[in-house]
Amino acid sequence: MANSDQMPKVDFMKDSEIDKRLLQQIKFVERQNLVRATRLNRMRRNARYTGLLLGGITLSIYGYSIYSIKQETFLDDFEEPAVTVKQ
């Protein structure tokens, strides 16, 4: 890329067009953006933990259900009744 394609760098201390109030406003917005980004990252992390927790609970309930069904033996000893013929 040529240098003409890029925006020129702005030096706030040298540039006399930007006054102190505007510089304070820019810094305030940057701080607010940093706070917002920090909150968003924390919310994403908490959402991941919640999703993993719910997934783990779901899989453990499913695993326990399968395990408890395998232990049931009441149908294993089931014998069909003898057929009686009426005369």
Automatic annotation (TrEMBL):
<feature type="transmembrane region" description="Helical">
    <location>
        <begin position="49"/>
        <end position="67"/>
    </location>
</feature>
<dbReference type="GO" id="GO:0033617">
    <property type="term" value="P:mitochondrial respiratory chain complex IV assembly"/>
</dbReference>
<keyword id="KW-0472">Membrane</keyword>
<dbReference type="InterPro" id="IPR041752">
    <property type="entry name" value="Coa3"/>
</dbReference>
<comment type="function">
    <text>Required for assembly of cytochrome c oxidase (complex IV).</text>
</comment>
<feature type="domain" description="Cytochrome c oxidase assembly factor 3 mitochondrial coiled-coil">
    <location>
        <begin position="33"/>
        <end position="81"/>
    </location>
</feature>
<comment type="similarity">
    <text>Belongs to the COA3 family.</text>
</comment>
<keyword id="KW-1133">Transmembrane helix</keyword>
<keyword id="KW-0999">Mitochondrion inner membrane</keyword>
<protein>
    <recommendedName>
        <fullName>Cytochrome c oxidase assembly factor 3</fullName>
    </recommendedName>
</protein>
<dbReference type="GO" id="GO:0005743">
    <property type="term" value="C:mitochondrial inner membrane"/>
</dbReference>
<keyword id="KW-0496">Mitochondrion</keyword>
<dbReference type="Pfam" id="PF09813">
    <property type="entry name" value="Coa3_cc"/>
</dbReference>
<dbReference type="InterPro" id="IPR018628">
    <property type="entry name" value="Coa3_CC"/>
</dbReference>
<keyword id="KW-0812">Transmembrane</keyword>
<comment type="subunit">
    <text>Component of 250-400 kDa complexes called cytochrome oxidase assembly intermediates or COA complexes.</text>
</comment>
